Amino acid sequence: MTPVLVALAVLVVVGGVASVAAATPRAAVLGLLVALVGAAYVADPIPGAVGLGARLAGTTLGAYLVWVALRRAPARLPPAMAGWTGSAAIAAAAFIAGWLAADGLGEALAAAAGPGGTSGRAGLDTTLVAGSLVARAAVAAACSLTALALPQVVGPRDTLRLGTGCLLLLAAAGLAGNALVGQLDAVVELALAVLTALAGAASAAVIAASVRHGGDLVIRDAHRPDAAIRHRPADDAHPLGHRELDGVPAASRPGSVSGPAA
Amino acid sequence: MRLLALLLIGGIGAALSAWGLHRGGRPARAGALLGVVALLGVTGAAFALRPGRIDVSGEPVTGLFDAHLVATDYLRLIVGLWGLESVVLVVVAWLLGGLARLRGLLPATLAAMTGGTVALASADLAVGFAAGAATGLGALVISLHGDGPAAVAAAARDLRVNVVGGAVLLGCLAVVPIAGRLALAGGDPGAAAGSPAFTGVPAIGLVAVVTTLVVAARWGILPFHVRVSRLADLVPPETLPLLLAWIAVPVTVVAIAMVDRLVTPLALPLDGERALLVVIALASMVLGALAAMVHDDLRHAVAYVVVGEAGLLVLAIAAFDPAAWGAGRSWIVVLAASKTALLVWSAVIEDRFGTRSVPDLRGWIRRSPFLAVALVLTALATLGIPGWIAYDARTALAALGAGPPWDLVLVIASVLTLAVYARLLIVGTGQPTSRVDRAAPEWVAPVGRTWALRRPVAPAARTATVDAAPVLLEGQEEPLPRRGPRRIRPGSSPTLATRVEVAGQRVATAARRDRAPLLSAAVLTLAILAVLTSWGALNLGSAAAEPAPILNGAGTD
Predict the structure, then answer these.
(1) Model pLDDT for residues B157-173, shown as the tens digit of each residue
(2) Looking at the complex, does the CB of residue B15 fall below 8 Å from at least one CB of chain A?
(3) Dihedral sign of CA atoms B167, B172, B177, B178 in order
(4) Residue of B nearest to A221 (CA)
């Protein structure tokens, strides 16, 4: 079972890369779904049926709502921050760093526990101390998803990638909990599932609003002139609104080149 | 069961009111009515909760979901007070702009109260953080109602603050037991590099700082203040109490519980982290008050007052002392209640005088003396007097956050916002501007214009008009015939729906006729509630000092 779960952790990271680097909404949401659903299962021991069912329902619902909101979005997404190669490189580096950090953390915890295997403190029967590869893979995947998501939420350019970044961070928090806390309580799993579904719904609402107001997914913050310039549409030299300025058609305004002859 | 009833009423009420209010017409009226009924139900259920379901050590005895959700005195106090203030807020919003102004406020309030109840009742910190993050998402219901790209940008900021904050707090919760174990394993604060304690102590400190920053982001404390002013520009002013004060309360309470339960008992040397957090608190209090003073935009000024006074919350975490538990939780309630009164005062002032510019409000007290009384009471509730909960919490947090003489500096910094109240009052005593002069009077109109309902008239004349504006469809030249007023024929027995509609329209007409005094009365009510909270009504002191019903967290204690 362990190799499958470690492979699943890698698949989660691949899904995360696809969700932030894909050029089409379909691929991005598919990657997001893989990352969110898979993250719930990278745990040792695997959570109970109630918890897993709740996480599956919550993550699927969250990703589905994002997909529904993208129906009227443009077929091509705004350019990704790092592209496929860059995102994959970031994810791989973070995965390796996370694996090594988990390795060191496990050894430090084992040393802190003493020769008897217990520190005398309550709790913390995590598999990380016992040297579980799944726990290491979970920490590594959490680091990887965090590295992928942080740029999307720190300087968001479009609503889809902002929502994706938020959901990936939630998945990373769940992975960290799986690895560091041990088996989560079913109620905690349920709470995480509800939060994921609500975060998906909120992301979907923001995406739908951006499509409704601007026709695309770009976040146009009036207080960020750099964002406005970077995402200036190609045909903004003569915006439609200027033609009807003050109720006077552009062609009949004084000084207009194409205006009627005096 | 009462806790379950509260959650069900809140959740269903939020869904139904959102559904109805988005449709307009009769469904909107029904949605608003259902929402108000649900709000009253949540408030009543909150006060009917039977607290004391935890033992002296904080272990839950009974509750929902196998004691994962437990009613406490503090929960009853916060949700009850939140409900009372929300009822007044809803009335204010309706008076300011009818059902359209309730479209975002009512569902968001109910949803936030439901999520907040889960967070505050949670016996598990992870559930509390998840519920706290979900509570914050209720803000999107309001911010997405704005027009244009600015609404998208504001909603994106809200989404980021809440979900990222929730994820970070959940991550911190996962890290704390491990870091605490490493920190305690070394036993020596001056541990050598490479030892477990060398890693554990900074990790715990980092968790404390990050937790505080998440709370700071939710309240708009410096350096996260930009979101607050932009939000104030975008949303209707009567929604600001929910967005800037109440919605951040649950996650703040859970964050303080985490630090108190998992970090403070370790008694680690976190002087550097404490100093950093005290600097953040001091900067927020001083710069927030300064920004509120120099801003001529009333909405910005009151929003920065919230930023400045919320800085004191940072000290509740920075103290790393069990004694800060009660004081911090008391200050949260006092802050939310007093800032609700201030923000609603601002909304009513803006509506009455038609301006957000403070200089243009010169002489406002002459037209609105009741609002002046409300502002004075709000300032009093903020400051408190010796013996009041607000005063004691302020001094205790300052003393626990930093020893002498810095505690005096912190206390002085925390009352700097009083200068803003003084400025607003001084502006109000000047010669009235033309805007102020032509504003509606605050007092109840004389005979013939009283807001009291008219006595029933003869049955033949009992009518109620039903709005039906002329509509021209495509290709139609004549307007549709206007639907006549609903008439109750003599001798016939009107249906219940007709009776309710007629009564509702009479109340609406009467209330709108004298909206100025009614709005002032609502603001005054909120100010009095704030004063009572600041004084310690509803047994705030002991409720805030009771232990949190936290089950987990045994990893480090």
Answers:
(1) 999 999 999 999 999 99
(2) no
(3) positive
(4) B153
